[in-house]
Structures are given as C-alpha cells and as structure tokens.
Amino acid sequence: MSASLLPLQASLGVLLFTCLAFCLLPEPALGITRHYQLDINLQNVTRLCHTKSMVTANGQFPGPRIVAREGDNLLIRVVNHVQNNISIHWHGIRQLRSGWADGPAYITQCPIQTGQSYVYNYTIVGQRGTLWWHAHISWLRSTLYGPLIILPKRGVPYPFAKPYKEIPIIFGEWFNADTEAIINQALQTGGGPNVSDAYTLNGLSGPLYNCSAKDTFKLKVKPGKTYLLRLINAALNDELFFSIANHTLKIVEVDAVYVKPFDTEILLITPGQTTNVLLQTKPNFPNATFLMTARPYATGQGTFDNSTVEGILEYESPSNSIHSSIKKLPLFKPTLPALNDTAFAATFTSKLRSLANAQFLANVPQNVDKKFFFTVGLGTNPCPINQTCQGPSNTTMFSASVNNVSFTMPTTAILQSHFFGQSNGVYTPDFPTTPIVPFNYTGNPPNNTMVSVELVLQDTSILGAESHPLHLHGFNFYVVGQGFGNYDPNKDPAKFNLVDPVERNTVGVPSGGWVAIRFLADNPGVWFMHCHLEVHTSWGLKMAWLVLDGKLPNQNLLPPPADLPKC
C-alpha cells in the first residue's frame, strides 16, 4: 500500500498535520444501541463552605456514569441550557470514521450554543475498559466530566479474576472562583492563572480542607474481597500520586488497554489518564481504617495547588461481632513521594507493559513511514504595546508551543472546513516537522524564547523543565521509548521496546526528557493533540493531525450528521 504524509499549518496559527492512510479499518462488532441524554445546566454546589453556581450535566458533580459494552453504538444527546457554548469529548474513544463525534470545539465541531442540542453518535470498536467524558471548550471541564465505562463483550471475561465489585474514583479540582473568569484574566494579563482551592475524590474534598469533614469520600469494603478501582484523573492542571495506606494495588489496565499486572503501593496518574487497579482487602476485619490520599507531582517553576486530598477506606464489621465505633479505630496514613520525585515517576511508568498475548496483541509498527520530532514546552511572548503584563517579567506573557509555534483557535471547525473544501483561511500545509530553531532543548535556553508514524516529543527548559501529559485524539499509540536529556536519533532508537510497549492515549513527556511513540494513521478525520494541563493548552500547547480518506469506502470519514452545530 502506498501512502504519503503532508504537514499542514493553519493560516490563523492552527497547527495541523495531514496523514494519508490507506489502511483498512476494522468492521464494527455487533452490539446494541444505548441512548443517553446529558442536560447541561447550572447547579448550586457547596464545598469548603463556599456555594457557587456551576455548569453540570443532569445537575450532578461529577457527571453521570455512561456504561456500554465493546461493540455497542452510543447515541448521546447533549442539550445546552446554559449561556456558555458547550462541546463534549469522549476521551480515549477511537471514533473510527466518526470524527464528527469526537467533540473538541472548533476542531471537529462548532460548539453547541445556548438552547441547542447535538447527538453524539459513535460505535465502540475494539475497546474495553475505563475512559471518561468531559467538556472540551475553555476550562469548563473543571466541573463538566464523568466516567465512561466500557465492559467486555457479553460472555468475554477479564484477563484477571472477576472482581467482587467495581468502583470508579475520579480525581478532580475544586475552585471557589469561576474557572472561566480565572483563565480569561490570566490570558488577558499574561500571567499564570490562580490555582485550585482543593483536590477532590468523586467530587468530595475530604477532611484536610476547611469545612470539609462531611464532604469526604468513603470506600466501604468487605474483608477477603477483590475490588476493581477505576481511577480517572480529571484534574485540570496536576499530575497526582495516589496510595491507600497498608494496601497494595495491582495495576491491570491503563487508558482502557490491559497491561501485564504488577503490584505497587503508589501510582502516578496524569490529567487525562485512567488506571484500573485491583484492591485485595485484608482477610479479616482489621480493627482499623485507612486513608487514601492523592497529591501533586510537580516539576515546573509555576505555582500549583500544593495540597492533599484524603478519602477513607472503611471495612464493614462482621454482623456477629461487636467492634468499637469507626471513629475510635486507629487511622493509618500512606506515605507519598516528594512533590518533584521524577525518579519515581520514571520508574513507575517503565513498569507499564502491554499484555502482548494471543488474545490481546501488541501491533507495534516495526517499520516507520514518517518520523516527526516535536519540542513541547513553555516560553514567552512580548506584551502588547503600551500594556504591562504579569508573565515572567512585566514585559512578557506566558506562552506554550509545539516546535516553537503556538496554536490559535479558529472560528470555524477544522474538520467541517476540510470536509466541505473550505479550508482557505483556516489552515495551510507548512507546519514544521522539526523545530524551526534547533537548540540544546534541556540545557541552557536560547536567547529567544497505513502510514506508520513515529513521533518523538521532547521537553524543553526555556522556562524550566516540566512534565507534559500529551493526549492524542482518535488514536491509541505505543510508548516505545523514553529518556532524559536530549533525544539522540543515532543512539536512542536501539533501546526502543518494539515487543510489548504500553498502549495509551495520553502520555507524560518526562520533565527534562523525551518520549517516543508509534501509531498507525488509520482513522480519517481531524484529530487534536494537546497537553492535558489546561493552562498549557490555553497558552497554545496544542495542534492537530488531518488524516485523509483511503481508497475504499470503508476507509472514509462518514458524512456529517444533520444536527451538526454551526458556528
């Protein structure tokens, strides 16, 4: 099969790539059609003794759980009852030929305006596990998110013993202020945005925060049982360490892909990532309760919410015995790594490996058609004339970029402009495949701040080295290598894992290092790629890939739905 790759640059600053794929897409598996409706409305919610009106789905915070099986077709009607424009992204869903349902505003669709609705219509093909959904416009995902659980096909077991119970746990952030006002002020002044006031577990802030003892997530378990915890990091801007005191967690899945199981007492999860763990409870009532805690992993120089969220693991006492009150039982607390423990982060991520067995293959591209090298990092832009800014200096504004170019959001959806042949003024094919100005990426900063694809993402230290969780829409990819310092194209590929690398949709670019991923460009459409730290995305650390139709009808993007929102 022949293939070609055409890099694109948007004339309005939109970063775009084009991959021309002739790969046959898998046929959808037979399933049932499931209908959901999300009514986007304002709801008063109180945390930290502070009540605010915020955007929610069906009045719930976090939002409702969406459950399906592999092979099912989902029809999810989203109705916008608020003044904000709305779009919803189904994070991690491949959206094979259904790019119109991916959700990022002005990329695959115009947002849903006040009083309007849109039906997201997609089929789950070849995926099972924990994913999630969230708003994909401005900072609205701070309150508008929820779990998306994909069960295996009926009759197909997990590749591990069936758990006694399955429990989603979503990490989030709580802001007393309106997050739209926070980011708007930051973009206007050029400074860093105010940080959150608390972290949350399933929307609850826990006993360490002011006025929050009653808002504590409690996980009640029985002795001698195995629980599947579906962990989701929905925090806006923070990677998180997580642990349960005196308990071991068995990692069995990340980003809805099974992995070789391994035990750990502590895990790391970046914004956008999901991790399934098995929790084996103690064989007998332990006469104790146990804290589960999460706090940030932070490597940059910017401010962040340096606090800890706590939940409580409680054992149900046997009905035929008398135990003291839960409040009188000893309470054990886990120990988490230091805030900047990059060594732990690297060690943990290196343990993740695909199952790579006969049932769950690791189809890692062994040969690469196109190679790309992207630098990702923070920088500065000069202040507008006659304006004082609040960036690193009073004459500069924070910015972020891919290959030294910052993304500017268009005013019409890129996928629509491509499909209808109206791309003039939206994008042009000249985005750089390597940095415009090469430099020592992790050393002293410069003075001025069935195409198989290999992409190396390199962190930079212009304003200090920092970890960046990069999310690619429309694809899973294999993490074939990572390291610290500058990527060496002559030496580092020899150390790539092409046998059982972990398969993900969101990967952390190591602080002061690089990560190499490979994927097959087999899904026609426009696919966003961006840092999942919302502050970096707001500053411009985002771009898109355009995958053209193949030669056969079942390789083509399906036509747009009739109710597709208009800009």
TrEMBL record:
<keyword id="KW-0439">Lignin degradation</keyword>
<dbReference type="InterPro" id="IPR002355">
    <property type="entry name" value="Cu_oxidase_Cu_BS"/>
</dbReference>
<keyword id="KW-0560">Oxidoreductase</keyword>
<dbReference type="InterPro" id="IPR033138">
    <property type="entry name" value="Cu_oxidase_CS"/>
</dbReference>
<keyword id="KW-0479">Metal-binding</keyword>
<feature type="signal peptide">
    <location>
        <begin position="1"/>
        <end position="31"/>
    </location>
</feature>
<keyword id="KW-0964">Secreted</keyword>
<keyword id="KW-0186">Copper</keyword>
<feature type="domain" description="Plastocyanin-like">
    <location>
        <begin position="42"/>
        <end position="153"/>
    </location>
</feature>
<comment type="function">
    <text>Lignin degradation and detoxification of lignin-derived products.</text>
</comment>
<dbReference type="GO" id="GO:0005507">
    <property type="term" value="F:copper ion binding"/>
</dbReference>
<dbReference type="InterPro" id="IPR011706">
    <property type="entry name" value="Cu-oxidase_C"/>
</dbReference>
<dbReference type="InterPro" id="IPR008972">
    <property type="entry name" value="Cupredoxin"/>
</dbReference>
<dbReference type="GO" id="GO:0052716">
    <property type="term" value="F:hydroquinone:oxygen oxidoreductase activity"/>
</dbReference>
<dbReference type="InterPro" id="IPR034289">
    <property type="entry name" value="CuRO_3_LCC"/>
</dbReference>
<dbReference type="GO" id="GO:0046274">
    <property type="term" value="P:lignin catabolic process"/>
</dbReference>
<dbReference type="InterPro" id="IPR001117">
    <property type="entry name" value="Cu-oxidase_2nd"/>
</dbReference>
<keyword id="KW-0325">Glycoprotein</keyword>
<protein>
    <recommendedName>
        <fullName>Laccase</fullName>
        <ecNumber>1.10.3.2</ecNumber>
    </recommendedName>
</protein>
<feature type="domain" description="Plastocyanin-like">
    <location>
        <begin position="166"/>
        <end position="317"/>
    </location>
</feature>
<comment type="similarity">
    <text>Belongs to the multicopper oxidase family.</text>
</comment>
<dbReference type="InterPro" id="IPR034288">
    <property type="entry name" value="CuRO_1_LCC"/>
</dbReference>
<keyword id="KW-0677">Repeat</keyword>
<feature type="domain" description="Plastocyanin-like">
    <location>
        <begin position="452"/>
        <end position="549"/>
    </location>
</feature>
<keyword id="KW-0052">Apoplast</keyword>
<dbReference type="Pfam" id="PF07731">
    <property type="entry name" value="Cu-oxidase_2"/>
</dbReference>
<dbReference type="InterPro" id="IPR011707">
    <property type="entry name" value="Cu-oxidase-like_N"/>
</dbReference>
<dbReference type="InterPro" id="IPR034285">
    <property type="entry name" value="CuRO_2_LCC"/>
</dbReference>
<keyword id="KW-0732">Signal</keyword>
<dbReference type="GO" id="GO:0048046">
    <property type="term" value="C:apoplast"/>
</dbReference>
<dbReference type="InterPro" id="IPR017761">
    <property type="entry name" value="Laccase"/>
</dbReference>
<dbReference type="InterPro" id="IPR045087">
    <property type="entry name" value="Cu-oxidase_fam"/>
</dbReference>
<dbReference type="Pfam" id="PF00394">
    <property type="entry name" value="Cu-oxidase"/>
</dbReference>
<dbReference type="Pfam" id="PF07732">
    <property type="entry name" value="Cu-oxidase_3"/>
</dbReference>
